[in-house]
Fold this protein.
Amino acid sequence: MESILEFFRFTPFSIRDLVDIALVSFIIYRFLLLMRGTRGVQMTFGIVMLLLLFWVTRFYQLASVQWLLSNVLTYIVIAIIVLYQHELRRGLAGIGKTSIWGHRRKSKNAFEEIVLAATTLASKKVGALIVIERDIGLRNYSESGITLDALLSYDLLVTIFSPYTPLHDGAVIAHQNRIIAAACFLPLTQDPYLSKELGTRHRAAIGITEETDAVAIIVSEETGTISLAREGKISRRLEGERLRSAIQKAVEGHADAELSNLIKQHREA
């Protein structure tokens, strides 16, 4: 204890040091938030355990194990880039996303069309996957489908997802009040803890929201239930007003608390 007091007594401390510590703390905090709820949590724990093991081997002078860990940790930077590629992509995209570039236009009429189409398709147990583009562009994914660039409407959405049309198998990508493309291929989530009840549509919806800030609405072909995915999380059994409210808040960027409540209610049901 006395050594710690001596350190602070003779170590100069200024406002610049305080700002420096605050910035480092903020970066660590944002990193932990970025890792929360992702596979990165387990990978981070594994890397920390390797570092602790390396320290133990140096302390007890275990030459063979220390040599092995030294060679492994040499490539730790490359390993971090490979293992955390999705998290890094989301983090860098989040840094570039700021409101100073302009306010997002609200498309409440488009929300109504999506809600009406989703509930109609759900009543008929017709599968659907609608992805709403936000700040991060989805051009790479829209180019994998059929370009439409058409006005977003209830009739068009119902027609696209009709089982007798060639565009029904895939995702619709929408931006504001336009349908950009249909029959698009999306990346599937690799989350090993995802419920086995969720099929390919749900996994694709979670996958695209893990890599981007998009919002995805899913209609299950098996059960006719409607779900919403955002930031790698999914809430299920949404109907009517709850679906409309969830979409609006998610697209406008105020859905964290709402989505958490929906997930909690689903788990308690």
